[in-house]
What we know:
Number of helices: 5
Order of helices and strands: EHHHHHE
Distance between the termini: 8 Å
CATH class: Mainly Alpha
Largest sheet: 2 strands, antiparallel
Strand order of the largest sheet: 1-2
Strand content: 5-15%
Number of strands: 2
Amino acid sequence: xxxxxxxxxxxxxxxxxxxxxxxxGLSRSTVTSLYKETAxxxxxxxxxxxxxxxxxxxxxxxxxxxx
Length: 67
């Protein structure tokens, strides 16, 4: 299962969903669905914008967990 660590990364930086949406240009609903891990699909441009803004690699934003 792929897990999104956006909520963890945002928490470490004390960011709100509104902050991330405003700074990345992503919609609030996109950021919220990633934050709450309810997203089923993610656009590559969205991943790139989040990695750019958070100064992280894709592997820090998404991890694969084995059950």
